[in-house]
Amino acid sequence: MTGTKSAAAAFALLLATGAVGAAHATPEEDRATIAELDTAYQAAVERNDADAMAAILHPEMILVIGRGAVFTREDLLRSARERDAEYEHQVEDEDTQMVRLYGEDAAIVTARLWLKGVTREGEAFERRLWFSDTYVRMPEGWRYAFGQASIALPTG
Fold it and tell me: Which of these, 104, 101, 97, 100, lies nearest to 22 by C-alpha position?
């Protein structure tokens, strides 16, 4: 892992564990923390870094993808550990991320995501999609609790 990737993983762990973004953070600080945390999560997926992902994911996390398949936290971590995909890109498109707070303990991040890589079976993929990620504040910090992704957007 490069120094930049190590730093990103360490920052993700600090954010997720509550070491950054104290309980009495302002709404602006919470938005910034959650934005960075969601970006760090996408980077952890891109690297297949199950440890960094685990630090961010809520214990009961659920992801629903565009065609209706449901994945648990354990499914996502297993996929990273087994390297079901090797990613060239798993990044939010610039200027598409929006963080909305709901009270003091819930937030939803929306953004357009660009995925590009190859599956373990050798099948190349590239697509863009919209997602909504729900974060909840827990005693140990913000956790990614629920995600929903659109079907692939039309190309062109």
Answer: 104
Burial 97-120 (b: 16+ CB within 10 A, else e): bebebeeeeebbbbbbbbbbeeee
Domain with residue 141: its CATH number is 3.10.450.50
Tens digit of each residue's pLDDT (9 = 90 or more) over 41-93: 999 999 999 999 999 999 999 999 999 999 999 999 999 999 999 999 999 99
The domain tally of the chain equals 1
Q: How far is CA 102 from CA 17, 108, 121, in A?
A: 20, 8, 41
What's the rounded Cα separation, in Å, for the pair 100 and 110?
8
Both tokens of 71, joined, read 């994945």
C-alpha 4/C-alpha 136 separation (Å) is 27
DSSP label at residue 115: E
- Name the residue range of residue 122's domain: 3-149
Residue 156 is assigned to a structural domain of this protein: no
